[in-house]
Structure formats: C-alpha cells, structure tokens
C-alpha cells in the first residue's frame, strides 16, 4: 500500500485532485490511499514528523511563508526515498523542482490523463519496471529510450536523435514528456536531453555535447540555464562527464 499526501492552497483544486486520484487508484487496481489532504503546510510538516509516507504531491506556490519547495526540502531531510510530485501554474518553476529529485512536475490545470500517466509510471518505478520505450505515430513506431541522445522540436515536428538514426514525427513536447523517464530534462524550448548520454556541458557557450562528437550537440536556453545546472548539482545521474565547463 502506497500512502499519498496532498498539499495545495486552493481547496477546490485539492478536492478535484483527490477525486482524480481515487478514480485512478480504482480504475487501475492500484494499492494506494490518500492519508492526508491539506491546504496548510504546517499540517503536512507535523504529519511527516510522525508518519512515514510514500508519495507527496505539492503545489509549489502555497500562498504562505512556506512554499512547496520548502516542504520538499524538509521531507527530503527525513526520508530520501519519498516520491515527490510538484504541481503549479507557474511554468518557470518547472526545472527548479527537479533539484529535489522530483519524480514529476504537473503544470496546472492538471488533467486526469496526465495525472494517470504519472501515477502509472510511479507504480512501475516502485515495482522496478522503468519505462523503456517511446511510442510514435499512433504506436506504429517504437523507440528505445536508452538509445535517445536528445529530442529536438522543429516547427510542428519533433525529431528524436538516437545512437543509430533520427526519427521525425508530428507531435509536441507536451505529448512526448509524459512518456519519458526521469533522466530526460528539457534544457531549451526546442531541446530535451538524455542526461545519461551527455559527455560535455559547455556552460560558457550554452552547449551540450553527446558521445564526444562536436557535431552532435544541442543548446541551453537562458530561461532554463540556472535550473538546468542545478539539476546536475543535486540530481542522481549515473554518467560521468568527460568535461563540465563552468567558465563564464
């Protein structure tokens, strides 16, 4: 049984999230329950001091002196294994959330489809079954995730650059991101990178390289840069970079 905690300053949003989660648990036969749902950060803090929990879904902006990021820091100090999922209407907080080893980030308004995908992946992760494939073209094309180096958005197309070839499809990052495992991070409005494939981050020129190939690269956007670098400082990645240039 997985125990869930929910925290959002908006009572109506909180109740809607509860109903969606209960429906997902029932429809997918998942062994889970909501043990606390609150609009008060202090109540959450007091609860986690006395109880063990498995999953915490936090709004980042709680209209309080205590933010969702503050709560995540407190939770992480007590238990590093807790799954943390952030929700927010402020898109600029997205990458900041990942410094707390976030399982997922849900932009508001949250849809039941997006939430269901996240919860399904979470249970797969708990059982040791990680997402291995990305499905394209109405499932006609299947790409192994561990072979993807980076993903590029070019107009209406999304291009998957893999170890062997490139795949193109008409799609969007909004549709692709929910399928990806946690080692994929967006670093630019037009690029998502597989952190396990990066060999060099050239911070001074905002370039990410793959497989020691100077022609195989993508870029870090100014909006994403600070948070992108924070991910590597606080994240838990298996690869070791050949170079990490922090020079200005």
Look at the helices and sheets and give the structural class. alpha/beta
* Low-pLDDT residue spans: 236-243
Question: What pattern of helices and strands is seen along the backbone?
Answer: EHEHEHEEHEEEEEHEEEEEHE
Content of β-strand: 25-35%
CATH homologous superfamily classification of the largest domain: Response regulator
| Sequence of strands across the biggest β-sheet | 2-1-3-4-5
| Multimeric state | single chain
Fraction of residues in helices? 25-40%
How many domains would you count in the coordinates? Answer: 2
- CATH top-level class of the largest domain: Alpha Beta
- Extended strand count: 16
Overall morphology:
globular
Query: How big is the Rg?
Result: 19 Å
Q: What is the CATH fold-level name of the largest domain?
A: Rossmann fold
CATH level-two architecture of the largest domain: 3-Layer(aba) Sandwich
Explain how this protein is built.
The protein has 248 residues and is of the alpha/beta class. It folds into two domains: 2-126, 3-Layer(aba) Sandwich (Rossmann fold), CATH 3.40.50.2300; 133-245, OB fold (Dihydrolipoamide Acetyltransferase, E2P). The model is unreliable at 236-243 (pLDDT under 50). Helix 2 (41-50) runs parallel beside helix 3 (68-78). A five-stranded parallel sheet has the order 2-1-3-4-5, sandwiched between helices. Strands 10-9-8-12-11 form a five-stranded antiparallel sheet, with no helix packed on it. A four-stranded mixed sheet has the order 15-14-13-16, with no helix packed on it. It is built from six helices and 16 strands. A hairpin with a 2-residue loop joins strand 8 and strand 9.
